[in-house]
Amino acid sequence: MDVETGWIASGIAAAVFLFAIASAVHALLQRRETGTVIAWVGLIFLLPLAGSILYWLFGINRIRRRARALRDGHSPTPTPRPSLAVDPRLSTRWQGLLSSGDALSPFTLSAGNRVTPLFDGDQAYASMLQAIDGAERSVALATYIFDADRIGYHFAERLRAAQQRGVEVRVLIDGIGARYSRRSMVNYLHRLGVRSAAFLPAFLPRSLAVFNLRNHRKLLIVDGASGFTGGMNIRQGHCCSDPGKYPIRDLHFRIDGPVVEHFQRVFSEDWAFTTGETLSGPAWMTPGAAQAGTTLCRGLPDGPDEDFEVLQFTLLAALAEAREQVTVITPYFLPEVGLLSALKTAALRGVQVDLLLPRRGNLRLVEWASNPLHAELLERGCRIWLTPPPFNHSKLMLVDACWLLFGSGNWDPRSLRLNFEFNLECYDADLGRELAEWTADLRRASHLLTLHEIRQRPMPLRLRDGAARLLTPYL
User: How far apart are CA 115 and CA 228, in angstroms?
Assistant: First the structure.
C-alpha cells in the first residue's frame, strides 16, 4: 500500500511539474512584455500548481484565434480610406493622429456628427430612456454592468415597452458584469420577452481560458442614428439625485450622425460572436444616418482579438501630437512603461500635462499600485490632481482643446490588453473648449499633489504601495 501511495504521489508531482513547464513555455512564447513574462514565470516556478492555474486563468489570451474564426467571412467592418480626404484642413495640424487612426481602426473618420456631453446619470439616463422610447426600428444595448436595482428595472421596463410595440431589441451584458447583482438581469430580460445574452459567461472550468477577457463596452444604439457611449454602466450609483450607498461621478455622451454606424457594427460583431445571430434586415441594416453637426468622429474598437492594442497606440500617438496641453481623466491609472515615458516626454517638451485621478479609488489594490508612479511623473513636470469624492469614474483625454477621446477604456492593463473596449475620437474645437472648461472646474475642486507630500508619506504605506506595484501584471 505504501508503494502504491508513493507511485501515486510521484505521478501527481510529475504531472504538476509538466503542467508548470507547459505554462512557463506558453508564457515565454506568447507574452510580449518582459516584465510580465518574468512575473508569470517566477510565480509558476515559485508555486508550480497554483501559479500555473492562476496563469491560465488570468494571464493568457486564447480568444484571438477564436474570434477571428467566428467572424471570418461575415465581419461587417468596412475597408477604411485615408481620413485626409474627409477634411483637408486637418492635414497639417493633425496628420500624425489621422494617419495612426487610419492604420489602427477599421473605420474611416466620419463627418457631420453632433456630440453632446451628459454629466452623471440624471442627464445620461434621461436622454437614453428618451431615445429608447422614441425608437422605431431597433435598439441595441451593450453594457458591462446592468444592476438589478431601481435604474436597472426602469431600463428593463422601457426596453420591454419598445419590444412590445414592434421594435427589434437586443441586450448584451458581460458574463462577469452580470454577476454584480444577485438577480441576473439576463434572465429577467428573457422573462420580459427581451432578447438578451451574456458575453462569455463565467462557468469554471469550462470558461477557464476566457475568464479574464471581458466586454467592458458601453453602447446604446437607437435606429442606427443615435448612439451613446462613455463610462456609465446601468446602475443607481451614477444618479446624483438618488445614488444609494455607493455614489459615482461619471461622464457619458450622446452622438447623432453617420458615425453611429461604427457603434452598430461593433455591437453586431459582439452579438454574432456571443449568440451566432447575424443582425440583418431593415431594422438593423439601415442607411447611413443624416448629418447632424460638424464634429469629425471615428470609432476605435479595442480588444484581445484583431483590434489588439488599438487604445494603447492611440494614446501614444495623441501624446506625441500634443503641443500645448493634455488632460487625462481616468479612474484607474496603471499605464505601462511606454505610456509613462510618453507622458513625461510630453511634459519635458513644454506641454502642460494634467492627470485627474480619484482621491479615493474603489479598488484599493489598484490605487496602491498606482501611487508609486506619481513621484516620477511630478519630477518630470506632469501635474496630478486628486478629485474629491464621490468616486470619479469618468474617462476622457483632451489634447490641445481640439482632439478628444472618450468611451469605456481606462489607463490600466485590463483596458489596454484584456477587455473589449470601445472609444470614440473626435476633432472639434468648440466641443474641446466646452470640455476644457469642465475639466478646469474639476481641477479647481481637486487637490494638486506635490512631491513634498509624496516624500512625507509614512514608510509602511510606501512599502505597501511598492508591494502592490509588483502585482501590476496580475491586476
Answer: 9
- Assess contact for 121 and 127: CB atoms under 8 A: no
Question: What is the spatial distance between Cα 161 and Cα 220, in angstroms, rounded to a whole number?
Answer: 16
- Interacting residues of 472 by C-beta distance below 8 A, sequence separation 6+: 334, 369, 413
DSSP H helices, 118-245, are 120-133, 150-164, 185-192
- What is the distance in angstroms between the CA of the first residue and the CA of the last residue of the chain? 45
Q: Give the gyration radius of the chain's Cα atoms.
A: 23
Give the phi and the psi of residue 329 in degrees, each rounded to 5: -120, 120
For 334, half-sphere exposure in the C-beta direction (CA atoms, 13 angstrom radius) is 25
Q: Where are the alpha helices (DSSP H) in 147-247?
A: 150-164, 185-192
CA-wise closest residue to 142 among 24, 272, 47: 272
Check if CATH label 3.30.870.10 holds for domain 310-474.
yes
Nearest to 423 by CA among 132, 219, 213: 219
- Backbone φ and ψ for 197, nearest 5 degrees, come out as -155, 155
Cell readout for 431 is 466641443
Which pLDDT tens digits describe the chain residue by residue (475 residues)? 465 666 766 777 777 777 778 777 777 766 566 667 777 777 777 777 777 767 766 666 545 434 443 344 334 444 455 665 556 667 688 988 999 999 999 999 999 999 999 999 999 999 999 999 999 999 999 999 999 999 999 999 999 999 999 999 999 999 999 888 888 899 999 999 999 999 988 766 655 566 778 999 999 999 999 999 999 999 999 999 988 888 999 999 999 999 999 999 999 999 999 999 999 988 998 777 889 999 999 999 999 877 889 999 999 999 999 999 999 999 999 999 999 999 999 999 999 999 999 999 999 999 999 999 999 999 999 999 999 999 999 999 999 999 999 999 999 988 998 899 999 999 999 999 999 999 999 999 999 999 999 999 999 999 999 888 887 765 6
Return the CATH fold of 108-300: Endonuclease; Chain A (3.30.870)
Scored b (16 or more CB within 10 A) or e, 51-80 reads bbbbbbbebbbebeeebeebbeeeebbeeb
Return the H-helix or E-strand segment holding 30: helix 2-30
Q: Is the distance from CB of 408 to CB of 144 less than 8 angstroms?
A: yes
- Whether this prediction's pTM lies above 0.90 is answered by no
Domain ranges in the chain are 2-60, 108-300, 310-474
Same fold, 108-300 and 310-474: yes
The answer, yes or no, to whether the previous bond of 390 is cis (omega within 30 of 0) is: yes
